[in-house]
Predict the structure.
Amino acid sequence: MAKIYLLSNQKYSDIENIEVFKIDYIKNKIDLTKYDALIFTSKNAVLSLDSFNKDWKKIPSFAIAPKTANFIKDYGGNLIFTGVTSHGNDFAKELIELLKNKKVLYIKALKTVSNLVEILKENHIDIDELVTYQTICNNTDLILEDNSVFIFTSPSSVECFFKQYEWRDNYKAIVIGKTTANYLPKYIEYKISQETSIDECIKLAKQILF
């Protein structure tokens, strides 16, 4: 029987998870109080930083998308701005005017795919980077059903999925954004959700499957 498979650790009652990767936090000793602004491009950046340093809550935070913004608010952060485009490079362009004359820290994964830092530096933004988490591939033993829909939520989900599974012609792919789409093998057709959120991806998957 065809299923909707979500390549993420977020749980939904009628969706099957394939946890092809896990998140490991990386603790850092850093004085956050010297920064005027923090940039977050994922919920994992918020959660990992909060796990070892609570000072971030006092500093103005800039979130790439509503989901990340909600985590900042839920954890007591000082949310100043939420991106409109929800894509890394475009988000950087949105930030240029907002971050002028500020000392900025980008909270990030060990591996990132956007040119956010480069774009901001080219526009004379004083920005540092802090790695607070990394993605590690998991081995899974799921037998995947034919004619199913797969939701790819990040470049890491693509990378880790294809380390374990072969793509079948009757599978269908949904990606959460343009950056993730760029990591799919070129022979795979896909659809992109209108908004950069798992909820929107699931809605689209249900339209395709049912």
